[in-house]
Amino acid sequence: MKKRIIDLRDEKPLLDVAAFARNGRLPTPAEWLHISLTVHRAPEVMVKVSGGARTLSGVERHMAYIGREGTLGLDVDTDGHIGGKGFERELVRDWDLDVDALQNHTRNSGSSRKPPKLVHNIIFSMPPGTSPHAVLRAVKRLASNEWALQHRYAMVLHTDDDHPHVHVVLKAVSERGVRLNIRKATLRSWRAQFAAHLRNLGVDANATERAVRDNRKSPLSHGAYRALSRDHSTRSPGIAHERPWHDSERTQSEGTRLRIRAGWRGVAELLESSHDHELAVAVRSFAADMSPIYARSILPSETTDLGVRRKDELRSRAEL
């Protein structure tokens, strides 16, 4: 089957520092705040699509798992809470997912293609030390703004590791029959909104691409972090092994890093011209401290025993 190619060049990044250098335009107040948060390394939000079930049993297993078999339950979009034994079956019926599943089966009858997802599973997370209740409130505000009266959703706060995080189950098809396709631009928008809601709650939070903020190591995947925190691996969470670079990757990464550093220097010049010397100094220091190449790393355990265990664990919990 022919692969679908998506051109992402027209998607606006969260913080386009190169644009300032090109256009010579002073930052708006919102952009000024974004620049300040980035160079002062404010905590970064994380929004990740962790999967999505294609069958009713898969939806129920995932809901039961994140709701801890009814002990925690889920907060639902009607401002209520549902829990107890068998809560997941009640929620599936309330969302009419059996109708969606039947329609998917009818449309894909005789086809080898996988049926479309009934729900999207999304994780909203913050670094250790963030107020868990603020994380939950921020996600609820985002959900109300983005999906209320459109897509059914439910969520639960987990605090069983250092990173407070909220699991969201989002119905893929809206009440008007429109399917939600989550793209990179969608995730960028959700990250920006999540960070803004946290700041409105008094929590220092930011949303910027890794390369722009000079994140020198790729973060652990959520599954890898949790497996390590449960001592399912003898690997240390602090040890990451760098994957060997291909020549084309190194050339592309070096070019990206040069453009970003030049962009930051352009931002500093603009700030100096507007007599914002304090932030200009911080930006120059940030640019000077950037690593010469954007490093990528993986944990060995993510590709060996941990990866196998994680896949088996996911298969047993939900059909993705």
Radius of gyration over alpha carbons?
A: 22 Å
* Helix-strand pattern: HHEHEEHHEHEEHHHEHHEHH
Name the shape in a single word.
Answer: elongated
Strand content: 5-15%
Low-confidence stretches: 1-10, 231-243, 295-320
Explain what the structure shows.
Helix content is 47%, strand content 11%. The N terminus and C terminus are likely disordered. It is elongated. The longest helix is centred in the C-terminal third of the chain and has 27 residues. The protein is an alpha+beta fold and 320 residues long. It is built from 13 helices and 8 strands. The protein has 2 domains: 107 residues, no CATH class; 160 residues, BirA Bifunctional Protein, domain 2, CATH 3.30.930.
What characteristics describe this protein?
320 residues; alpha+beta; BirA Bifunctional Protein, domain 2; 2 domains; two-stranded antiparallel sheet; 13 helices; 8 strands; 47% helix; elongated; disordered N terminus; disordered C terminus
